[in-house]
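thread: overnight batch results

M.L. [08:02]
morning all. the overnight job finished for the chain we discussed friday. pasting input first so we're all looking at the same thing
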Amino acid sequence: MGVWGVAILSNDIAEDIRFIYKDLLGDGYSNEQASEKVIQEYVDELDAEEMTLFWLSFSLIQWKLGRLQDHVKQNAVEIIDSGIELENWNDDLKLKKKREAVLLKLKHQLNQPQPLAKKIPKRFVADTTFKSGDIVSFQMDSSEYILLKVIDIIEQWTRDRYPLFEIYDWQGKEIPSLEEISTLRLKTGYYDDDEDMPRKIAVYQSGKRDPFVKRASLIAEGFPVTSDTEPPYTLLSWKSLNALIDEMNLNKN
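M.L. [08:03]
and the structure it wrote out:
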């Protein structure tokens, strides 16, 4: 569990439940259904200390979205009134004092009229039709092409899926033959440990109408994958790919 400040939402749990809760609402779940799913997701996973953060965070998230439920509010207010959460701040009395003020402010806020509930838009979930072993071309701003090899499909807990590529050390106006592709070298780069290794990039679609994803085309399938698919790798959008390749070419020269 990560906590980086005295603010109610300055913790990992708040980040996660806000994402999941808004995702469910955007997918068409009612407030009651979304709330129940979030609670069931965490109630058996968190210890007592973490559950205090859960109820405090969830109450504020619901209030800000105009969807505060009575039982969520009650749990948060009982935690504040009991003073139990402040015990987690005993190692730093200055921070404890600030946290106490934050909790009292939250209690006051929860007792105020909440904003009108607004429709939560459905989140775009990135996906890909590419698969491991695919060779993909990408057309640069210069109209030249580069070649990429899919070595894995990354699947995030957010349901987003995107390909992990290696980059062939080639750029041109005419796609080479499969025989030629099989002889091409890979672009390499230095990571934190200063080891020169094949450069890996994970490229995601940034929206439903992302025009840059249309620049990518499947060239071949079934190429062998022998590379390590673990991090480090660079995560970027299709829109940013052109600039990255230009930068790599500049550094090479």
